Amino acid sequence: MNLALWIAAGLLAAVALTGGVTKTFVPREKLAAVHGGGWTGDVGPVFVKTLGVLEILAAAGLVLTAALGIAPVLVPVTAVCWILLMIGAMVTHGRRGESALVVLNLAYLALAVFVAWGRFGPESFTG
């Protein structure tokens, strides 16, 4: 189970890092022009950049804190934050009629629930 939790956290971290780097460094106008990025045209550039930085921090919180042994409790805490982020993403994409992205966000949410449950529970780093 420990290996499955590491894999799930690693997958989520890869998603968070990719999305975070994109939102932080790609111009909002360019993001708004790609499939699934239309929502960025409806919000301010500071919001998009802030979300990107938070996603980069989430990638670090999901893997690095435990791998380096620095506050590994941040892994399940970050997973809970990712769950909240995915709920927001599902609402946003749902309102825009992007059902395929809602399903994708649901899959990420399920992985985050698994990580949060496992790291707060049976495979806790503190136990």
UniProtKB/TrEMBL annotation:
Keywords tagged on the record: Membrane, Transmembrane, Transmembrane helix
The answer to keyword Transport applying to this record is no
Domain of life according to the entry: Bacteria
Q: What start-end ranges are recorded for coiled-coil regions in this protein?
A: none
Membrane protein topology class: Multi-pass membrane protein
InterPro entries annotated for this entry?
DoxX (IPR032808)
Cellular localization per UniProt: Membrane
Regions that span the bilayer: 56-87, 99-120
Q: What is this protein called?
A: DoxX family protein
Q: Which organism is it from?
A: Streptomyces pseudovenezuelae
